[in-house]
Amino acid sequence: MALKDLVSLIDNKLSETFNRKEAKPEQLRAPLLKGIEQATKQFENGSTKAPGRWWKASNGVVALTVKLKGETFDINGVATNHFPEERFGDFMKAFKAAVDAGEFDAELKNHGNGDAQVHISKAGGKRGPVSDEAKANMKKAAQARAERQRAAKEAANA
Known about the structure:
By secondary structure, the protein is mainly alpha-helical. It is built from 6 helices and 5 strands. β3 and β4 form a beta hairpin. About 10% of the residues have low confidence.
């Protein structure tokens, strides 16, 4: 085996994963359960001005965006889910029960670590990876823009 082949097997990006402390499921669930309890209480009390509130209500519909550690926590692959106001409380009870049962443990374990197996997007974060085709299109657009600017500058100087 050549040195080049040997080096290709090394992945030093795994050092962060290697050094990560494994948290107990109860520790992982605690912030989410606290947030569920807080959001439920705020909704029941009609606290529409609470800081860090997960929900908004308008026209009989509640929009829920779960946030953990400054990032959204997607449910069903979506950052913001909508419910009729009268069913929001039922959803929150079911959500709490699912978290207690460990149904979100895999997502919670990987949330914020950059190696999640499910789609969990950052709130207001960067876009995903850009394809080579998109990069080429952006480069062409930049070149065309630069050419137009040069032509406009020459026309202004003439």
